[in-house]
UniProtKB/TrEMBL annotation:
Native species: Micrurus carvalhoi
GO BP term (any one): chromosome segregation
Lineage: Eukaryota, Metazoa, Chordata, Craniata, Vertebrata
Alphabetically ordered keywords of this record: Centromere, Chromosome, Nucleus
Compartment annotation: Chromosome, Centromere; Nucleus
Stated family: Belongs to the CENP-N/CHL4 family.
GO-annotated cellular components: chromosome, centromeric region; nucleoplasm
Name of the protein in its database record: Centromere protein N
Region of interest (Disordered), residue spans: 1-21
Predominant location: nucleus
UniProt keyword Nucleus present: yes
Length: 260
């Protein structure tokens, strides 16, 4: 659900009863409006770069955009081009994921740690297997969800989940974002007020990573990179607990907005 193609409306043409009527394409207003709002959030100086990174529009289409015009006009022009390409909600979600990767400090990130049994060996990470297990686990419980993945150079897997219910389509305006570094047991998740969604997310993460349990670590911040510095240093020390004063010193040197 939510993956209907978006294209301009076309009327059925009479064929004199000889040929079947032409196919009707219906514009998906959900897709159009979400793309429009996402483009409006992008700073003018970054619009071309971000749309290029998205990779959904052709080079010719990108060159046709007049970025120096009012942002409202630019967003409408982007929507029209997306209609030509028959964009789906998954295409729109990928643009949103790219935006939030670049402007990740606009979110509050909460740190979670996954654990295994003491006698369990680590599992070699496989990107394809991870995506398949994550989607199958989550969608087996909740069909109405939009799930998007993107892998970055630093072994970071970014996931975006727009949640629906048994009877409603996914709410694209209140998604959850997840960042998982495959060589560590740490997961960074944006805050959510819906506990049921968190439970489903944790189940999908554990199934996809072959860990047994997950718990919140009591660290949160707008600065995702600062959280990574703290956690990856701890990981490199093979989980030896830091003295309290050393941990506090590390926090002071990284980011004073981190909440313990």
């Amino acid at each position: 659900e939510g993956d209907r193609k978006m294209a301009p409306k076309r009327r059925l043409r009479s064929s004199g009863g000889q040929d079947p009527p032409s196919k009707v394409f219906i514009r998906d207003e959900t897709v159009a409006e979400y793309i429009r709002r996402t483009v409006l959030r992008i700073p003018r100086s970054e619009t071309s770069k971000m749309l290029t990174s998205w990779g959904f529009l052709s080079e010719t289409q990108l060159q046709s955009l007049k970025i120096h015009h009012f942002k409202e006009k630019v967003s409408e022009a982007v929507v029209e081009l997306c209609e030509e390409n028959q964009a789906t909600i998954k295409d729109a979600a990928e643009l949103d994921l790219i935006y939030n990767y670049i402007y990740q400090d606009k979110k509050t990130w909460i740190v979670y740690q996954m654990t295994r049994e003491d006698d369990e060996d680590a599992v070699i990470f496989n990107w394809t297997t991870f995506k398949k297990k994550f989607k199958c686990t989550l969608l087996s419980v909740l069909k109405n969800a939009t799930i998007s993945f993107k892998e970055y150079e630093d072994n970071a897997v970014w996931i975006r989940i727009a949640w629906g219910t048994q009877y409603t389509r996914p709410n694209q305006y209140k998604p959850t974002y997840v960042v998982y570094h495959s060589q560590t047991p740490y997961v960074f998740i944006t805050s959510s007020r819906v506990k049921r969604n968190n439970t489903l997310l944790f189940q999908a993460l554990l199934a996809a990573t072959c860990y047994k349990d997950i718990h919140e670590m009591g660290l949160r911040s707008h600065c995702l990179n600062s959280l990574k510095v703290i956690l990856f240093k701890r990981f490199s020390q093979t989980y030896l607990p830091q003295p309290l004063q050393e941990k506090n010193s590390a926090l002071e040197n990284v980011d004073s907005t981190i909440i313990l």
